[in-house]
Amino acid sequence: MALSFDPDATQLPKGHFIGGRYIDAKGGLPMRRPSDAVAYAECPVADADLVDQAVSTAKRALKESGWSTRRPRERTNAMHRWADLIEAEGETLARLEAVSSTRPISQLIQGDVAVTAEQIRFFAEFADKEGSDLVPTGDDSLGLIMTEPYGVVGAITPWNFPLSMAGWKLGPALAAGNAIVLKPSEMTPFSTLYVAELAVRAGIPAGLINIVLGDGRTTGTAITGHPDISKVSFTGSTAAGSAIMANIARTGVKPMTLELGGKSPQIVFADADLTLAANAIASSIVVNAGQACVAGSRIIVEKSTAESLALAILARMQTIKPGPTWDETSDYSPIISERQIDRIDAIVRAAIDAGAECLTGAKRLNRDGYFYAPTLLSHVRQDSPAVVEEIFGPVLTLQTFTDEEEALALADHPTYGLAAGLFTRDLSRAIRLTRRLQAGTVWINRYSRSRDHILPTGGYKQSGIGKDLGRAAYQANRKSKSVLINL
């Protein structure tokens, strides 16, 4: 089917989605399309009163629907119907996301939409398979660990993968028996609004999913500090995660899951399959123009093979096809905003001024919108801003090593520990280094998430607290109590 579309002819959801219906709201934050920099909409900002209305609606819906106490398989079946609708309405969802975000329409259809439906189905199956445990105690007693939902979960998702990030939050929260109040990014809210509408159409009780639009300062603060929100889940920058922790501490104590920033290394040994390594490394920074928390932005390569690897990566970078996200032939994304592309360029310039050598890129592309050329910097020092800072753009740095200890020293980052890549044919070395790498995820002879949703994701150090995806994400949406019965 033809996927290209006219962004000006796309009908956008309007307002917040509370209690199963849209709440009209006028004015707000100006929105520009990343692909052509055209102003096309405004995002309303929910204040504390509207957030309170959404939370009250969620509490009431949870009580009246009996969602958390009904037979678990009923939750599972409703979520499967929801996933079916996500697939059936995939083209509409993809258009709503492509018009505002950095995600090309063809990649959305092939990837994000299908992955989101899979995630919903994956978490749905936990509803009737995870529960309380009978634990060993003395013969004169019976010990149980019982679990139950938190109630209302508050969630905040980023702009880089809006639809699939919504699936990360909505899937486990609902399967575990909770209601949810979610704030998508003010730059990319539309696919999230529509996926919530699809949930109601699928038979999930209205009011269990509430989407409030707005910025972090006003709306996000109101969500994370609300006394009736019992658990918070956030994906975004480390700075924003720190602000959320501080806000929660000011207003009380509650559990949180934070998936935050990264500055992930990719270590390449001379015995690696260089074609495989080069393709994986280039793809990790070209996909979504490097706008991913797990972007493998730091190449750390054995000195004897550095030149060969660099040439192979440069060749892959030359194959990109930049274009509007609504053009099905485009495969290279714009940067989300003028502010972000200026930040990327400023960090690259500072690195070059500090002695880095630019092998390619380091410039905006000469076209409409916010496009930045894939960039490869070599001869960078460990204290270079391009090595230290999370750039969130299509920028790779290249450093060399001569032995394992030097590779590990270069890979270690003082702030981040989200992911790492390792390329070698030596299995013993791979296991040995994996044990020492300070990262929540290690990919060996690849660099990307798979569609094995059972694998959790989350970081070490300031890259986060807790896990998304996997069994851990479901369990993080239920609280436990210990029960001891005398016989």
Describe the structure.
A hairpin with a 2-residue loop joins strand 1 (16-18) and strand 2 (21-23). Helix content is 38%, strand content 20%. It folds into 2 domains: 7-260 and 464-486, 3-Layer(aba) Sandwich (Aldehyde Dehydrogenase, Chain A, domain 1), CATH 3.40.605.10; 265-452, Aldehyde Dehydrogenase, Chain A, domain 2. It is globular. The protein contains 15 helices and 22 strands. With 487 residues, the chain is an alpha/beta fold. The protein starts with 15 loop residues before the first strand and ends with a strand. The strands form 6 sheets. The protein has a 7-stranded mixed beta sheet with strand order 14-15-16-13-12-18-19, with helices on both faces.
Can you tag this structure with a few keywords?
487 residues, six-stranded mixed beta sheet, Aldehyde Dehydrogenase, Chain A, domain 2, 2 domains, alpha/beta, 15 helices, globular, 22 strands, Aldehyde Dehydrogenase, Chain A, domain 1
